[in-house]
Amino acid sequence: MIRHHIAALCLAIPLLAGAESQPLGADPAVETRLKALSQELRCLVCQNQTLADSTAPLAEDLRVEIREQIAKGLSDKEITDYLVARYGDFVRYRPPLKSQTVLLWLGPTLLLAGGVTGLWITLRRRNKLLLNDNDQDDKEEGEEA
Amino acid sequence: MKPVLKYLIPLAVFLVLVIFFAFGLRLDPREVPSPLIDKPAPAFHLPQLGEAGKTFSPEDLRGQVWLLNVWASWCTACREEHPLLMELSKQGLVPLIGMDYKDTDTDGSGVLSQAGNPYKLVVTDADGRVGIDYGVYGVPETYVIDKAGIIRYKQIGPITIEALRDKILPLIKGLQ
């Protein structure tokens, strides 16, 4: 009899553990939003990881904070604004377009435009050179004939 | 194209790169400018370390220029700046308030009794909530807060002699 009780108790341990860890991932909808949101946010401790991936204590605290704010019914924008107000635009992997970030956003396009222009000029010049050469060749051939 | 130009363009491109690197490589990517500069210091109400029942709030120091130094017993870089903080506290220029960040009271008090206590008082932010409000991400961090309760400067990482001499002390004197 006692053995049965002990066995039952042992079997019940995972149940207890399950009950304890419940609040963390209680609501799948909240978790989905937390995951989506924290993938857009940078962990400031290990700067090349997202808040979703990082195991830094601060990232954990911030995930708890975000989870609570989601539960309170705050929108994604409100939560992002909350973090930006404290850590700056750097927490966002997609910084907003403003005077300080114009170069960041338009830089690649400018570089591409510069490259394409350079290429175009070079190709045109080479074409011209080739044409001139051909003309001269033609002339020379004509003279020979 | 003139032959001179042909050699000058790569040189110009190179010089531009040099200028970019000269500025870029000297920046510390760990030093993220805080959006809290020139904003009111976030309010808090925290228990004091080693003073049961006593609390502290930034309101208590309204009308004074003061320093908030975020530290922890587990933070090794905090020990680097500790002698400087001791020196600063000896000079008695400004009230130096410590914030024991994500630490236990025993560990925090232990460090202070062992290495010396430079602080006027220390508050404990055990769960790091107030730290989040202050945008703390790398302890130690030090905030200069002016008479109106506005954050005027944030030192990320340990205070260095240079930062103290060239930035923090002149700023404090100006604010006072």
Number of helices of chain B: 5
* H-E string of chain A: HHHHH
Share of residues in strands of chain A:
under 5%
| Helical/strand content category of chain A | mainly alpha
Contiguous low-pLDDT stretches of chain B (5 residues minimum) are none
Assign an overall shape of chain A. elongated
Oligomer: heterodimer
- CATH-scheme architecture of chain B: 3-Layer(aba) Sandwich
Binned strand content of chain B: 15-25%
Give average pLDDT of chain A, whole number: 81
- Specify the helix fraction band of chain B: 25-40%
Strand order of the largest sheet of chain B: 5-4-3-6-7
Would you tell me the overall average pLDDT of chain B? 91
Q: How is the CATH topology of the largest domain in chain A named? A: Helicase, Ruva Protein, domain 3
The CATH superfamily of the largest domain in chain A turns out to be Cytochrome C biogenesis protein
Number of helices of chain A: 5
CATH topology name of chain B, in short, is: Glutaredoxin
Rg estimate of chain B, integer Å = 21 Å
Per CATH, the superfamily of chain B is Glutaredoxin
Second-tier CATH architecture of the largest domain in chain A:
Orthogonal Bundle
* Helix percentage range of chain A: 55-70%
